[in-house]
């Protein structure tokens, strides 16, 4: 399965009139494929919906986050902590098995490398709540509610729902072990940061003769250049040096607003070119900005690799699910069937599509439904057990089945049941 499958499945969900129903109809593998498609299309909302569906189907696999070495916590817009992972709980001295819903300042306070509390508007969480993601790890210290502190590096990012920032996430790592060894290096880095200013961009200007009249910005250093190396050269001369901008320069000087991606010396830049016009409308030159998006590109590539790995894992799981000789079925808390394997479908004479969405209780003969409701409640109470039932096949005939029902538990909560069934042996 390749990229076309990713885009096709994503579009199928995106364009569905009833997306909830469409999600139920997708196989687990297609959900992962749709996530990759949504990521490619930069659709954070649908990517989140699809990711939630995939995680629910695989019990959310929260162990990945819980096993992370970095501390992670999330806050809402009121700066109240809404989530803390295991690493953060251990480091911050919070209970391991208790919900945390307290003001952020009651848990930790971020400080600079000298231990001084950062000003409110500079706090990484406050920055994220303004919609700004930390571009790189920041080092400082974290002071706990008991007065102790440790050196840490952190990054923050906004939590968006649609276009709205609804909260922020803070990821931190304890760097106390290397702090002393790196102290001299950090001092020199701080000194360098006070001298070097500017954003990771290149601002440039172009004359109507195609030669650069301006080239400024910290990102010039990324490609090993300085303003004097660029100003005065033409786009074609820079093309010979590997910049790949001659086509964009030609188009902007013809009056077109241009967006172009260029790769230079291992770095990727998103460039935007705008023509400069005289009062009469004639193009007299152009201005533009080149933004270093190398980190974003690498993150996207990493996300694609993760999606492919998840897809392969889900494919293996689905293969085991489908090839089981026993009938397998998943039911949500409302009693609706959410999945069934081939053996279960063949046993009842239904297709998978016909079973999904049906109430499992409706498949049981009426006189035994009350007893099976009792058994289902035992399963939802977290008690795995053996049970028997007489179910009605699609053709109206009845078949006695025996099997087990086990609770599906996500984050310590029962979210449904998972059943294994086979025809009862003849007397």
In short:
About 2% of the residues have low confidence. With 427 residues, this protein is α+β, with helices and mostly antiparallel strands. A 6-stranded antiparallel beta sheet has the order 2-1-6-5-4-3. The protein has a 5-stranded antiparallel beta sheet with strand order 8-7-11-10-9, sandwiched between helices. Strands 13-12-16-15-14 form a 5-stranded antiparallel beta sheet.
Total DSSP helices: 16
Number of domains: 4
- The order of strands across the largest sheet is 2-1-6-5-4-3
CATH T-level fold name of the largest domain: Beta-Lactamase
| Low-confidence spans | 191-197
Beta-strand content estimate: 25-35%
Number of strands: 16
Q: Which CATH top level class of the largest domain fits? A: Alpha Beta
Jot down its keywords.
427 residues, alpha+beta, Beta-Lactamase, 4 domains, five-stranded antiparallel sheet, 16 helices, 35% helix
Provide an overview of this structure.
With 427 residues, the protein is an alpha+beta fold. Helices cover 35% and strands 30% of the residues. The protein has helices at residues 3-14, 19-25, 28-40, 44-57, 63-66, 86-92, 124-129, 176-179, 183-195, 227-230, 235-240, 246-253, 294-323, 342-348, 352-355, 369-380, and strands spanning 71-76, 81-84, 108-111, 138-144, 149-161, 164-174, 201-207, 212-216, 258-264, 267-277, 283-292, 327-332, 337-340, 385-392, 398-410, 413-423. A hairpin with a 5-residue loop joins strand 14 (385-392) and strand 15. Helix 1 (3-14) packs across helix 3, helix 3 (28-40) runs antiparallel to helix 4 (44-57) and helix 3 (28-40) runs antiparallel to helix 13 (294-323). The radius of gyration is 29 Å and the shape is globular.
